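Lecture 7, part 2: worked example. A protein chain together with alpha-D-galactopyranose.
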Amino acid sequence: MVTAVAPGRVNLIGDHTDTTGGLVLPMAVDLVTTVTGEAGGHEVVLTSDTEAQSARVPLLVTDPTAVTPGWARYVAGVVAELKPTTGFRGHITTTLPVGAGLSSSAALEVAVALALGFEGDAVALARLTQRAEQRSSGVPCGIMDQLASAAGVAGHALLIDCHSLSVTPVPVPDDGEIRVIHSGQSRELATSAYADRADAVHAVEQIVGPLRLIDDVDALGGIRDATLARRARHVVTENARVRRAADALAAGDLGLMGRLMVESHRSLREDFEVSTHALDHLVTRLLQTPGVYGARLTGAGFGGCVVALTRPGVLNEGWRVTPSTGAHC
Ligand code: GLA
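Predicted complex, written out as structure tokens:
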């Protein structure tokens, strides 16, 4: 009998930077997906507490997008990438809200890969499950979600360099509370708009070279197209904010961390244009509450969740999350 556990993640700061090998500062959370079962047979069969229909995936699956029901595509993506030689029969339970912006799909992929016998370190696990996510969703996503789930460290956020894939744990002070609050708006546009933004930053890199190597926005002067220039400015300034945020957290300066989160939201709203009225409204409302250091949209945007950093006990909405250990068997 195998039991594999993988956490969801919340990103504290550094969004839309991973696709250009930039910096991100997520943490694994104490909400997890668990796969329990046994190897055997010629297909992967998984039932789930939260889904009416089970997943039944042949070992030789080649097109995960064609697999039904919808959630089984993520299982199929992992099977297609991992290519296990023996099947598996098991059951999934989860404490993660599905589709709420806490990376339930990454947690599912990472837990399934471990249950199916993946061997290797956290980076290899994240690379494999990132490819699985790309194959099953068709979205050219970065590596942040899967690597945060695979490499989580209790009590710490993770400063990840998405180019070298180095992971540096940064302690999260005990006097800060992290809450994730849903905007009430689902992320329906996220698929096409995410790909559009990824295309934009890659187009910019054809002009100015790798954005991760630029720390001065003056170096973006050669970009004629005003929209592309704003997209690039977001990435360059966001990488700088992540660096400062990691230092602020390590120094226990929650006030500065909060201000950087607010600046990040403004940049995602004005320069990268991935916010929505619902997200902006929620951030503004939360920032009016005394004891809230900062709040920003988290993840891809276009709806979904806001993350807030607060003094303990000042908000009682959403999910209270604590930085947790990464995936394990
Ligand atoms: C999604 C992707 C990540 C990352 C974020 C935005 O969560 O899966 O790779 O790009 O959006 O930061």
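The chain has two domains: 2-171, 177-321. The mean pLDDT is 96. Keep this in mind for problem set question 3.
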